[in-house]
Amino acid sequence: MQALLLSLAQATMPHLMLAPIALPLVTAALMLILREEQQRLKVTLNLLSTALGLLIALVLLFWSNQQGLPTSLGVYLPGNWPAPFGIVLALDRLAALMLVLTSTVALASVLFASARWHRAGVHYHPLFQFQLMGLSGAFLTADLFNLFVFFEIMLAASYGLLLHGSGRARVQSGLHYIAINLAASALFLIGVSMLYGITGTLNMADLARSMPAVAPNDRGLLHAAAAILATAFLIKAAAWPLNFWLVPAYSAATAPVGALFALMTKVGIYALLRLWTLLFGTESGASAWFGSLWLLSGGLLTMAFGAIGMLGSQRLGHLAGYAAVLSSGTLLAAMGFGHNLLTGSLLYYLPGSTLAVSALFLLSDLIDRWRTEGSGTMPYEPLADEAPFLDAELVPAAGMNLDDDEEVLVGRVIPAAAAFMGISFLGCTLMVAGLPPLASFVGKFAMLTAVLNPLGMGASAGHQPGWYGWSFLALLIASGLLALIALTRVGIRHFWAAHDRPPPQLRWAEGLPIAGLLLTCVLLSVVAEPVLRYTQATADALHSPGTYIRAVMSAVPTPSPVYMSPEKQQPLEDGP
Description:
Layout: H1 2-12, H2 19-33, H3 39-64, E1 74-76, E2 89-91, H4 93-113, H5 124-140, H6 144-163, H7 168-199, H8 204-210, H9 219-236, H10 246-252, H11 255-261, H12 264-279, H13 292-311, H14 316-336, H15 340-371, H16 416-433, H17 439-452, H18 466-496, H19 508-526, H20 528-543, H21 546-553, E3 562-564, E4 571-573
Helix pairs in contact: 1-3, 2-3, 2-5, 3-4, 3-5, 4-5, 4-11, 4-15, 4-19, 5-6, 6-7, 7-9, 7-10, 8-21, 9-12, 10-14, 11-15, 12-14, 13-14, 13-18, 14-15, 14-18, 15-16, 15-17, 15-19, 15-20, 16-18, 16-19
């Protein structure tokens, strides 16, 4: 299978790099032509396009990780202009990883939405595809201005998706979401304009090449521009105190939209990681690792905020939102250390935590629907006596462990749908809290090991993590404990407490995506060794950006076609 995918990639590269952007664009344009009554055809097109996008992303992933080519990097010039004058798309291991993650979550989201939520409003499917186009473009572009363009495509689609389904809560949260993202876009433009004024370029590789040559008098202005640009990315990454909008907005969205939005915070993480290692790495002169303490401190505060928010939440949607904040804080704090071993570990942790949060958003919709079945939208209130079959000493009372027909309750078969939801909730709990044996535990353990052994196992004797290192270790463990307490409390309330309600109704289109996301988390832990090798190679390339810079800057445009004039039989170039 891998050989087949590699042969397909070899035959279609570099043009295949354009497919993750062009495919959703064409699909969305086609669905806009269809009438709103043709929902079944739109669902089919959306599912087929998203599944094909996942296949393309896997092909690109295998191509970027070919054996014997540790620096595999694809460069595509859509306008056939050399860098830094034209648009450039660049594919490396990091971009390929994010494309696969995006397509995986998107496929689960659209399959879940096909059961019921896609009918709650108009233009759901075109907006969904435009969202995928913006996400894919942001991961592939090698130019800051085009990064802004794809950000705006992604945000414009997200505005419509957030409001999908209407309702006062969605409108109110949607207005806050739009306002804060418009402010972030303004900061993005200001930061990009200042960088262009200082360096004269917006190509990422050219910017990295220009960093050491910035005049000392302009160094302060450069740092100010980078800080303004980073603020825009930190808003998207849900860093504290810029994340006040996230939980109300994400929890108010429909479940499949919330699952897709779990990727949105990772776009901010990706942009920060990409630009920070390129522009402020070890080769950037006096600006080396500028902002590392800010990233580290902000990440630690975000971790604490997310963990406390989870502990104080009662609603499943809010729990999922704070879990996304906790995941982003962990990634930001680990990134701030600037160690390639720690970066490799956080890149392993990133997909697992994102999949778990997406699954929790989808699962929260099923559990809330089951909880309010037959009672409108009123939340569940605990009864005065939660355990009538126990006496004051918590000993089973004689004759009380019976139902209305005086049949023993012990050993009663659990409905299959309730059992599936309970097992899925347990899997989400293990992933969010970082408990064994799933992928989040492996990622957290790898991060702990990297902090204590930054030079590698057996080579860091006598090294002390320092105040920031010990704080990160403590918060990594404590946040997992608080997340476990919060999720366990909610799980007991929904699955163990006595409820007078019918068994849950679960469609295959709702259960299959949740099972798929959690099985992918299991797969990540089963194949942890090769995945960790992949993420470590990704981190090593990020912290040594010379290969990326040379590949982008040395990309040669394709020569114009030549034909023979029938009159003069002389070769003429096609075009001026």
